Structures are given as structure tokens and as C-alpha cells.
Amino acid sequence: MTSSKKTISQSIWDFFCSLKLTMFTLITLAVISIIGTVIPQGTPPPEYLHTISQNKLKLYKSLGFFDMYHSWWFILLLSLLSLNLIACSVKRLPAICKTITRPVRVMDDGLERSISNLTSIMTSGDAATLKDRVAAVLKAEFAEPVVTETDGAYHLFAQTAPWSRLAVYAVHLSVLVIFIGAIIGSLFGYKGFVNIPEGESVGKVMSRSEKEIDLGFAVRCEKFSVSHYPNGAPKEFKSILTVLENGRPVAGYDRVPVIVNDPLNYKGITFYQSSYGKYGEHEFTVSDPDGSNPQPLKMQSNGSAKLPDGSGICLQETTPDISRFQSGLNGPAAQVEVHLANGENKTFIVYSNNPAMNRMNLPYTGGKLLQYRGGEEFMYTGLQVAKDPGVWVVWVGCILMVVGIYVAFFMAHRRIWVRVENGTVTIGGNSSKNQGGFQLFMEQLMTKLKKQLPLEDNK
Amino acid sequence: MTSSSLFNITTFAYLLSMLGFFAFAVSRSKVLGTAASALAYGGLLAQTVAIGLRWKESYALGIGHAPLSNLYESVVFFSWTIVLIYGLLDLKYRYRVIGAFVMPFALLGMAWGQLSLDSGIQPLVPALQSNWLTYHVITCFLGYAAFAVACGISIMYLIRAKHEKSTPDNEQSIVATFPAGRVLDDLNYKSIMIGFPLLTLGIVTGAAWANYAWGTYWSWDPKETWSLIVWFVYAAFLHARITRGWAGQRAAWLSIIGFAATIFCYLGVNLLLSGLHSYGG
Ligand code: HEM
Questions:
Q1: What is the pLDDT of residue A459?
Q2: Is residue A179 one of the residues assigned to a domain?
Q3: How far is the CA of A11 from the centre of ligand 1 (A)?
Q4: Please, are residues A391 and A185 in contact by the beta-carbon 8 Å criterion?
Q5: What is its membrane topology (chain B) (predicted)?
Q6: Residue ranges of the alpha helices (H) in A222-360?
């Protein structure tokens, strides 16, 4: 049978075993991964959508470009990579295992011809004595040899780190292990988000896919705080969290500080400091300049409202006591921004017990007097919530990969064969890596060996 | 002596070293080669001390952290790792002229940092307050540096290959001082053999940090994705050696493309794309 008449199953097998496929998959993965770094992933922001045409949007959507790393064609490529990896290993592993478990211990003619590091030493003395001397040198300088006796000749075989041949397969296996870990995580884990106001607790979080997830316990935010460096840059975001089971704090999880880079983990669910904000409601009154006809106006923290003349007003900042910022004044105050009819924005401060100062803002508030009545404000903490039972599998894969790559690159399977006959010692060896280094080693070994052997001619 | 004046001395030493290597390639004068190497090693020493001083200075300011926290510090560190990896190869294999193709990368980094980046020591924002930052940055940049060296060697390989085709046996040309193609090919592989495990470790430490700080070891943010792209290219390079037909010139091109992707991963992502890694910002 000629190779052109291969069966179909054989061609498929060869296809999956080929290293050309490996090159193709690796390079294709590298190139198409670029798409997702240029096109925003997830829900594309409106600013981006304005920059592309409707047709393009439809095309991108149907090709899955907005979630390309989970699209069928990306998964297909990863599957191709995995199949290629498995097929290559299945094809090559048996021979490698045989090399390791059943090494060729006798250097025959075929092997002798294939070895590049080959030396013959002419010597005197009987084979048995020579064998012992060579064995001693190999043991001291390399590894303990195994001796086989055939036709009056002794064959010595010694090797180091035969298992290092498996390292490449460990690396390949690690890729699959990481994939498995990722699949476990996506099937049995979730990523979610929750905002908890200070003093309140929650037992449910919202997942990224907008599903409500019951935690099975509750988390209370005792306090949230931000501290700053002297130059004003934020230094630390800190939530104090308590885990509650049946409404009662769990020992060891009472008032735990959680900061960025130091999360809280309970029952496999982890809470990460992610964002924060203010919750609260503030009361204002809008009245005639002399204070008559007061109408209440309510605004949320960082919220907005409409003044009677229709212009918009936003609440920026409040304080229960202005004296900290402006000496000579006291009581609660609020900083607001008004969007004037002429398109300008005006920012000013509204006081609760200083109508005279408030009257200076009449031009911006449509001739009405705006006064702050006070309000209550709480911080809330924004926590990222994640559960990923596959993450340990991923770490095992990563460790396997790093160790595997190190061994694959920097350790070598070295083998040395020696044939001892009456009068001649023939030595050959090879190495799975770093031929240059091995050649040097062999030269040094020869020098040492020659010192131990009764040489025929002491050249 | 402050760290900043030592960084200036470093930049100057790298400039002279690069010019020395160029002169060495042209003149083949052993003295020039030795001088260029000495300047590179001297610069490396000055830079090492400078980085240590900057670290100490940050503690004196009360905001102590490893000097690996912004674009200026990273580009200085990148330069340092490039000369370090070059030095290791030089000590082991002694092909001096490679310096002519490697020192320009180191000089470019230092010159850019010293001339146009903000070199002030800033406090660490909360997102970077983690020991993982140090492990992650050191491993990544050592990997990048090995790829820079491999790229320089690949450029030499391609010049040599082109030259051998057009004018074989021209003993007078500069190219004749280059190591043989086979040697360059091997050195290219050896540098990537240093870089690939380090990049792998860099990606793994990054994933470990992301998992610790955000709860996801991988979120396909542009920086992560680009590091994976770089990783794919070098994985392809490693397999190229096993596949006949992909060695030599194609492998050299893969190494150059890999370094271009590395630079995009390091700088392009921050300057052109948006994402979670506001690092170089
Ligand atoms: C498409 C899937 C892949 C296939 C089919 C494949 C196949 C192979 C084969 C046949 C070898 C040579 C083994 C030998 O020398 O006996 C090899 C080496 C190697 N592979 Fe892969 N591989 C794949 C993907 C990967 C990936 C994703 C990595 C990432 C780390 C990787 C890392 C390595 C390493 C480090 C070596 C050793 C290279 C060297 O010694 O220079 N492989 N691969």
C-alpha cells in the first residue's frame, strides 16, 4: 500500500497529529485574539456604537465580536488546539515511555552509527577488570551503570533524568488542565456584584448575567471609609464586613476589614472591594425671596431635580457642619450645580441657617430662594462577589506548566553506552537537549576515563 | 548622589556603549569591543544602584514601594533587564558584536524615560498595593527583555542571511564580523528559552494577582489578551524548530513579530486601547 492510498480515518488522524496544524492554530489564535482588544467586549458603550454603522453593528453581532472569546469559532479553535495536543501526545507518548522504562542497554551497530559522541580507547587488560574501572568512573562522574554481558563483551549503560522527556507532555497536559479548570468555573461558579449601605445587610447578589443569587448567608457592611495621601490621591478604600448566619455574626467573620487587594472569603464565596458611593436624601425648600410660600425639594446624594423655573439642579456634596470649611459659618450646607437657561453651569453653596448668604444665589435659581434643610447620608460599599470552584484546578495546571517548561528547557535526558571488550573500550552517548554542553561533558569524561585505564600507548 | 543623577549617568554610559559597539563592528578592534562591554556593565551597575536608591528615597518620602509602579519606573526597569539578559548571554557565549543590536533597545528605554516621562516618585494607588505587583512586574519584564535580545539577534540573522545571498564571501564587510547564521539561530532560541518561562510565570502571577484582588484570574482585558497573543507567538516559535521548513528565516521573523507584539502589549495597549491596566497611564 502506498501512502497516497491512506484510508480516511488515517488521514484524519494524521491531520490532528500534524505540527503544521499546531503552527496554524497558535498563529491564528494570536491573530484573531486581536479583534477582542480593539472591539469592546460585553455590552458595548453607546459612545462606541455611535462610531460604527448599523450594518457593521449587525455583522459584528452575528459574528459574536462583542463576546468573541466565548464565540463558537473561538471555542472551536481552542478545541482544535486541544485535539491536536491530545493526538500528538497519544502518537508520541508510547515510544517516549518505552525509552524511559525499557532503555536500550546494549550499543549495537545501528546505535553506534547514529551516535555523534563516539570514542574508542585502545587499552590492555582483561574485559572484567576494565569493566569495573569504567563502571566506577561512570558512577562517580555520571550515574550508576547497568551491566549486560553478551558474547564475552560487557555492555554498560547509564543515564540521567530520563523522566525529563515527559516534561513536554506535562506542559501540554497543563494546557488541558487549565481548560478543564476554566470549564468547571464557568459551569459551577458565578461572578456578581452587590452594593451594601453602611449598617445594612444583604443575602442576595446580582450576577453578571442579571440573575439573582441567594448566598445562603448574609453580609453586613458595618462601615466604609476612604483615606487619602497628603497629595489628595486615594490611599485606601476600606469596608468593615460581618458575615451573618441566621441573623447572627459568625465567629471569626465579625467586623473583618476588607480593602482592595485583601478580600473576604466565606464558604468559597469571595467579596472584593470594588467601588463605593453615597446613599442619602436631602431636603431643600424653595420659597419667595422673603421666605414665604415654601415648597419642599428633595434630592438624593449625587442626584438631581428641577427648580420651579425648569432649570436642572444637581447635588454635589453636603456636610453636616460647614464650619470645618468656612470659618465664621456653621450648620449643615450643600454644594449644588445649576444648569442655567443660557447653557452655563453655576456651582454654589446653599446653607441651612444663613438666608442672607442664600439670597445671593437668587439670580441662578430663577428668583426663588433655595435653602438647605439638611439630610441623612450613608456611604455604601460596592463589592465584587465571586465563586469559582475551578480555580484550584487552574492553579494546578499553572504550576504543572511552569515546572514542566523549566524541566523541558533546562534538563536533559543524557545516556551513555560503553562496550568493553578485551583491548578496547568504546564509549558513546547522547543527550535530549543542549548538545554543546553534553559534548564538553563527554570530553571531560574521556580525560578522566583515560587516567583510570591502563593505556596501550601513553600518548 | 541622587538616583536621578545616577540614571543620567546610566543613560550616558549606554549611549557610549552603543557607539562603542558600532565602532567595534566597523573596525574589529578588540579594544573597542572591550570598552563597549565595560561601559555596558558599568552602566548596569550604576543603574542597579540607582534603582536601589530610588527605592530607598521612596521610603524617605513615607510612601515606600518598589520602583515598579508607573510608566517611568517600568521603562527604566525594562532597560535594566535588557542589559542584564545581554550581560548573561555575553558572559556565557561571548559574542560581543550582539551588543550593537541590543544596546539600542536599552538606550531607547533610558532616553525616553529620562527625557520625556514624569520621573516623580508617586504614592501607590490602592489597586497596586500588593506584593504581587513586584513578582508580576519582575517576571514579565525579564521575559520582555529576553525577547528584546532575541529580536536583536534575529535582525542580525536576517541581515546576515540576506548578505550571504547577495554577496557571498565578502570578508571585508561588517556582516562578516557577525557570528555564523547557525550560531545566531541558536542564540535566538536560547534567549527565547529564557524569555518564555519568564513570560509564562509573568502571566501566571498576573492571573494569581487578579484572582486575589478581583476574583477573576482571567477577564480578557486587552493587556491580558495581548500577553496571551505574545505567548502564542513564542509558543509557535518553539514549535517552529520541531517542524521542518519553519526554522531559520521564518523563525527569525517570528521572533521579531513576537517582540513587536511584546512592545504593543507593554506600551500600545496603554496608549491606544483602554482597559483595567491603567498602569502606564
Ligand atoms: C496545538 C497544540 C500543540 C501540539 C500538537 C504540540 C506538540 C508538540 C510537540 C510534538 C512537541 C515536541 C515534543 C518532542 O520534542 O518530543 C512540542 C514541544 C513543546 N511544546 Fe507543544 N504542542 C502544542 C501546544 C503547545 C502549547 C500551547 C504550549 C505552551 C506552553 C506548548 C509548549 C511546548 C514546549 C515548551 C515544547 C518544548 C519545545 C522545545 O523543547 O523547544 N505546546 N509540542
A1: 39
A2: no
A3: 21
A4: yes
A5: Multi-pass membrane protein
A6: 355-359
| pLDDT band at residue B226 using 50, 70 and 90 as cut-offs | very high
Which residues in chain B touch residue A182, judged by CB atoms under 8 angstroms apart?
Answer: 218
How far apart are the C-alpha atoms of A264 and A385, rounded to whole Å? 10
**A397 is a domain residue:** no
Mean pLDDT taken over chain A: 88
Cβ distance of A261 and B216 shorter than 8 Å: no
pLDDT above 50 for A100: yes
Domain coverage including residue A41: 8-98
Cross-sheet strand order for the sheet of A117-122:
A117-122, A424-431, A414-421, A153-160, A146-150
* Cα→Cα distances A286→A132, A283, A291, A300, Å: 108, 10, 8, 16
Looking at residue B175, its pLDDT comes to 78
Residue A212: φ, ψ to 5°: -85, 130
A327 Rama sector, left if φ>0, alpha if ψ -120 to 50, beta otherwise: beta
Please give the domain boundaries of chain B with CATH numbers for all domains.
1-119 (1.20.120), 142-281 (no CATH)
Q: What is the DSSP string of A374-417?
A: EEEEEEEEEEEEEE-TTHHHHHHHHHHHHHHHHHHHH---EEEE
Q: Are residues A250 and A316 in the same domain?
A: no
Question: What is the reported pTM?
Answer: 0.85
Strand, helix or coil for residue A313 = strand
Whether residue A133 sits in one domain with residue A72: no
Cα–Cα distance, A187 to A388 (Å, whole number): 9
Taking alpha carbons only, the member of A159, A143, A166, A116 closest to residue A414 is A159
Question: What is the 3 state secondary structure string of B92-140?
Answer: HHCCHHHHHHHHHHHHHHHHHHHHHCCCCCCCCCHHHCCHHHHHHHHHH
Ligand 1 mean position, distance from CA B239 (Å): 6
Please tell me the number of Cα atoms within 13 Å of B155 on its side-chain side: 18
Which of ligand 1's atoms lies nearest the C-alpha of A175? Answer: 27
